[in-house]
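OP here, attaching both records as promised.
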Amino acid sequence: MNKKEDNEKGGVKGWIDGDETAHYMLRRISALRSTLLVPPLHRVPLRLGNVIEIFGPSPSAKTQILIQVAINCVLPKEWNGVRYGGFDHSVLFVDLDCRFDISRFSQMLTHRIMEGTAIGDCDKTLYDLCMQRFLYARCSNSFEFLQTLKSLHYRLKREKDHGVSVQLLLIDSIGAFHWVDRASMFLSLKEHNRKKLFLQSVSEAVVQDIKKLLQVHPMLVIATKSVIFGNTYSTASEEVNGCSRNVTRSPQHTQYREYMPSVWQSFVTHRILLRRSDDQPVISNSENSSLYVLEWLLPRIGLPDKIIVKDNGVFVNS
């Protein structure tokens, strides 16, 4: 059998036919490399596959920023002649704090929609569409979180088969189970001979599962993390079961305790510090508002942004 006949029988020709076309490959690479400007995190262009960590004390409006980013994602670019500037994609919100307020999400979404209508009413069709694009999962411990990550591939594939593309994975908050897992290292778990839960192994499993997920479903990952500010800890670096416990200083010389294992820290591509501002805005017209400082640490940007959180959303204070 000559080479031509071998190709026609499914050899090299079969391999080529089973591969993607050049047109599809260019479209896929272009989508992966395209930059995203995500208000109020628009200072740095982001790409699918980036992992952003937003950390700060509790409370510091970290969840509010996640909600704002989620709304920008589910809103369309344009709807009935009105430009909303959204991503026109779905978002997956993984709630590890178990304190997510869906009424707050609905309130902020309704206000964004009403801003675009001439009569100031909420477009019910657009509202329902955006709510359908908001996917939610809640986990109460690390085991449930790992199970959720392992099942996300099938959930996202099912959504994709129905024409729904998820481009944003939000995790609130990544360190929610840290102290419980740490305590479990010193407890004897005799029930059903379950293995002890070690911080390093859990974090490694989380990072590996997210990496595998991003290979098949490219997404932008944004995770929040609560930290403790203050100077009550030693500046010495410790390693306990592979978990880094450094006390780190921000550019303002504010100390905060880094408790997440190094495998997670090295996985993060962008890091943002969020803290309450000393200069609080004047409350007017019975509208609640708070002022926060948002600072990029990775990559380092010298000029921080001031963020105002109001009842109707999160805004950059220009």
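Record two, same layout:
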Amino acid sequence: MIIDGGSCTNVAFTTLVSNLSFPTQDHLNPYKLRWLNKGSEVRVDKKCIVSFSIGKVYKDEVICDVVPMDACHLLLGRPWEFDRNTTHQGMDNTYSFKHNGMKVTLTPLPPNQRNYGSPNMPEELNGVLFLSESAMEVQKEESNEVPAEVKPLIQKYKDVFPAELPSGLPPLRGIEYHIDLVPGFVLPKRPAYRCDRTTTRELQCQIEELMAKGFVRESLSPSAVPALLVPKKDGTWRMCTDSRAINNITFKYSFPIPRLDNMLDELSGATVFSKIDLK
């Protein structure tokens, strides 16, 4: 089994599904893949529910696309990470999440138990993790120099990407943004976050800076949203507002923004686009 944060779907090996007699269903949106299997592209038109367990604590089932692949038997991609709300620790290479009220942490196998081969790979190739020279694409070192054909375009729209944001709010538009609350709900009351003296001083400095530039202004509303500071990797602080309580009573938009991985799947292989596609 492989956990792959770059995969847009969960995948099950066709031989695994066949040997374990998992019932399959027709895929609602068949598509083609070229990266999971050596050779030509593969048409994905079947899916199934795969039950699995890791250790004695974590038992789960996922909906997988059925694909003949060389990588592994079961691949858990971004849909599994999204549904389980996993947290990946890159340094330790672990995945943590809550399952049935318990915290689960998946760790990689120790080096003496790892098998870098694949189920369909010939025995003489097992353990080989290198690409041939013909399979590699040699890339030039990245350069910060802007190509000559792009410079006129950047110069034309230089006001769109300034080095610093101009002071003040954008001009009034035909439609102004507002938050629609569900009728009948009472505004929730939450206590303010406790802050020490240093955090309070930094929070006040950031608010004064935003007010001086005209990005925010003093609110006349009787309600407020609690704010707090979160440390960043470079040692500075980022101001965050806790809008979870107000989001719970906000009228949900009828047409939510589609997931990026689904959009990429739909556009896979396309070379010509129209205004209808963009809408």
